[in-house]
Amino acid sequence: MIYYLCFILFLIGLYGVCCKKNVVKIILGLWIMEYSVNLFLILLGYRKNGIPPIMSKEMDVIEFYKKAVDPLPQAMVLTSIVIGLGVLALMVTVAIRLYQRYGTFDITEMKKLKG
Amino acid sequence: MKNNEEKGMSLIVKTVTRWLKGFIFLFGAYIVVFGHLSPGGGFPGGVVFAATFILLTLAFGREYALRKIGKILASELDSLGAILFLILASLGIYFTGIFFSNFIEKFHPSGNFKLFSAGIIPLCNISIGMKVGASLFMIFIILSVVRVIFEDGKGKLITTEKKDKK
Amino acid sequence: MVNLPLFIILPFGVAFFIPMVSRKFKWVPDVLGNITTFILLLLSLMTLNQEHVYHIGGWRAPFGIVLVLDGLSCLLLVIINLISFMSSLFSIEYLEKRYTSKLRYYSLFLLMVGGMNGTVLSGDLFNLFVFMEIASIASYALVGFGCEARELEASFKYLVMGNVGSLFVLYAVALLYGKTGTLNMADVARILKDIPYDNLIAFSFVLIISGFMIKSALVPFHAWLPDAHPSAPAPISAMLSGVVIKALGVYVVIRLIFNLFGFNHIISNILVYMGITSMIIGVCLAILQWDLKRLLAYHSISQMGYVFCGIGLGTTLGILGGIFHLFNHSLFKSLLFLDSGSIEYETETRDLNKMGLLYKKMPITSFSTLVASMSISGIPPFNGFWSKFIIILASIKAGRPIVALWAVIGSILTLSSFTKVCRYSIYGKGEKFDKEKWEKLKEVPDFMSIPLIILSILCIFTGLLLIGLENGIFGPVIDVLKGGVLEYINKVLGD
What we know:
Largest sheet of chain C: 2 strands, antiparallel
Number of helices of chain C: 20
Distance between the termini of chain C: 19 Å
Mean pLDDT of chain B: 76
Order of helices and strands of chain C: HHEEHHHHHHHHHHHHHHHHHH
Radius of gyration of chain B: 20 Å
Distance between the termini of chain B: 33 Å
Structural class of chain B: mainly alpha
Oligomer: heterotrimer
Largest sheet of chain B: 2 strands, antiparallel
């Protein structure tokens, strides 16, 4: 069920990207999409009453396997957050620069490229 | 000093910042160095490093923070972190023939000094921390050099100084 | 045996090393950038016809990250590094006149090359995504490198579309991970083969393929390409059109379809019909253009349609045609973009109406433009003819004469639009032809004309690569694709 909610969040972001005309709102829409994917990834590894995936010497391997949460999605989320940070910084810079050139954030007024 | 007081935020914020900045930096260093034993690591620690300088920028203004760590220095630290990480990874080829192999002994024999208990992972964490801290600070500074000025009811964007990095 | 991580270490290392030193020494970016791309070219030529699986950190295949070198990645490595060497050679003089910061340019350029090398070599879904993002971020920044209004607008468009595509890919990777519990491509393929096909797999297939098709600019997803490719500096346009859409788009789509999900009749139909649509729509839009670089960008869409058509047929001959056309397209399209760059460098315009009679003043540029135009439109001795001929032949042999008919129509339209280019820019003159400006024109500097000459020679002679088909460069590629899922699993997970 909660996975479907993630997908709905993803679709909300996609709606924002497709239908909004403001540059900043488009960026926000992309960010909603990004975080819905991150949320989905982190929920994949979640386990109720789980323990951290650090194994000490006393633990039994099978017991550990049954209880520990999955560490791989967490590493993936960290990586995708870093990538997202890079894209966000670039995107905000481009948006600021666009504002400098066009004097507006409305994408319907940015139409120097045609054809 | 007097010139400094006029810029930035109020006296309370400045005083608290002056006290706290060292501790925040130290906390970042702690997270980086203990990353292989406890939750944390290069990226969160680097973010805390950057947060120190961002706090300075917010409290005292950009010029004060840039005096502490210049733009060129930040850019060079940024590159240096990445290169150190690559060198650590390629040293694996030199020692064992495998890229990214953990060539330092994993259980260091010296009993008391257990910091380097995970081979190259702490060293990698330090280089990542350097890279992340410097580049986040750079991003913040670069995004803060442009400001919007409102004239005649219409926003106008001016650049206060030449942009250094894309 | 070449050490595979070198393809990733070398460009990234130099990319981060350049900003450290070149504030003091101005000559460093040029020299280091060109030497690096040259070494990468030599290394990639050394990997030809080899197969190797490299385990990073010494961890075995399903647990650790693997780099896989086989016929397909070999071919793509050669293409990437050849075109990147040509472009970096071209940009020494080109950037001198029109742009300022060589430091950032070469740094981003090498990041892009390294990201693409990683994408081509990676055998792990998430690593594929990460390398793809590195290459994409560098190319977003390079498209907006000039910081003028048009470039920024194109860059923003590319950013939004590309980022939506990457998020589709990430979502699909997450779904596949949830289904199979692994990220290694061969392991995912092994598990998907055993479990019954359900909606979740179909959904992730659609998401991941449409994500990568946004990157490869097939027709329903093509909106960013005609803006982004012309706005970049000319060497970057050559890289984007010649390499990036292939390494990030076509290569990954082919790899995922043939080696991970498995090829079947429905996918074949989808690929062929999308190929035909983009072939025809791309070329129809291209004929209308008066901006030289924009015309070339629309042709990229159309030629990618040929590649997908050939590969979508699924027969040996069709795959050979598609792959050969991929290789040829990277040569002549990058040559055309470099030509447009040198025309722009001298005449300072991209409008076909304002050019004219260039063959008298710029012999090398106009000769190489002629060679590339004939090559792209499929005139017999050039390489473009052979690949288009094979695609048409394959579609007739596969019992789809309609595909062959559309391919011939597309080829004729391509010929007509390049006749327009040659007539207005080289041999005739446009309506707004400026005589005084024309008097002052001269041939471009040496460093810009060397890549043009090399690429035109390659365009003429790569038709010969078809000789010795079974043992040549394309034999292993066909083996990889025809071998399908099972052979890939055995190669990566075996022993």
